[in-house]
Specification:
about 120 residues; mainly alpha; two-stranded antiparallel ribbon; elongated; transmembrane; Membrane protein; membrane
């Protein structure tokens, strides 16, 4: 049995030949209108992320006293001589802030990687 198939050939649908080459890295460095728009997009994405996560933290912080006033039995409950709402505010907030901070760093770095991918014109 012989193998009469021709050798494999790489097929490329489109070659980029300089006429349409996007120079986004240069545009960002030279602060052209396109580069400025890209940087503003990154800043806007980072600000939106920070505001959304801050809103989550504020909702949790506000929910503790509101829950205490909505349910008076919980407000008067004491653990180790400390009222439960104060204990939650004192103990629950640090792990919450740590987790939200780590999550922010992860998402902010993802935004920056996406920006670099756009600037470097990677697929």
């Amino acid at each position: 049995m012989t193998n009469d198939r021709p050798p494999r050939e790489r097929v490329v649908l489109a070659h980029r030949r300089g006429a349409r080459m996007i120079r986004t890295r240069v545009e960002v460095q030279e602060q052209t209108e396109v580069g400025d728009a890209l940087v503003r997009g990154l800043v806007r994405a980072q600000l939106g992320l920070a505001l959304r996560l801050a809103a989550v933290v504020m909702c949790v912080v506000v929910a503790i006293p509101v829950g205490g006033s909505a349910f008076p039995a919980l407000e008067s409950l004491a653990v180790f001589g400390i009222r439960l709402n104060w204990l939650l505010l004192a103990v629950l907030m640090y792990p919450l802030l740590y987790v939200v901070g780590r999550f922010y760093i992860k998402l902010a770095e993802q935004n920056e990687r996406d920006f670099i991918r756009v600037v470097d014109d990677e697929p």
